[in-house]
Structure prediction request, 252 residues.
Amino acid sequence: MISKQNIELVRSLAKKKGREETGLFVAEGEKLVFDLLKTKLELSTLYFSAEAAALLKNFPDPAKSVKLSAKEMERISSFKNPSNLLALFKIPTYQEAGLPAFEGLSLVLDGLQDPGNLGTIIRLADWFGIEDIYCSENCVDSFNPKCIQSTMGAIARVKVHYLDLPELLKEAVRQKFPVYGTYMDGENLYQTELLSQALIVMGSEGKGISPQLSPYLTKKISIPAFPVGDRELESLNVALSAAIVCAEFRRR
Prediction:
């Protein structure tokens, strides 16, 4: 049984304001929920239908689980065909004091607006062993439900930070840490020296990298199209570009 108040709570998490007020995010679907339950994320509440009861026989904390009817699951689900499992997790906080001391490979995302793209990039970062993603303050929220679905559980392992990007890159320059920016007219990715410890800046889907970030870039790079010089082609999707760029950096 679920109260009207809790139904409203779950629904409120579809919006950033609701997530900020409660400190919670929602995950839905058997695979995603079970993947997140295996991580260090703190569970708030697990809602399940009768069909999923058998899957939870070894669930460690029955006090946090609530059995619902199919109709009730439908009322809290964002899916067209409601899942048997829906969980609320506490949004993790990272202990940060000022700007980071850079090491390894990290991504910097400037103004991304599509939650599916951000979620896919978080999943890519997890695959390529990238622990930190730095986002501009106007990027889509990484705990948006669509973003969470796209991460396939990687949100529990990759830290997504929101901060002032000019200040971040200014600090990278101060630390003499290399900063690569992806552009349509940059140096050929496959013919450029790529360092294993660096920041990779990627711009928004429609506008690219903001002009105010350009002065802090060590090098501008580009994924070449084939045949070379064909200017009638559209630019690549930012998540697809991130996959190609990260793969090349790791290959080196």
About this structure: The domain at 105-251 is CATH 3.40.1280.10 (Alpha/beta knot).
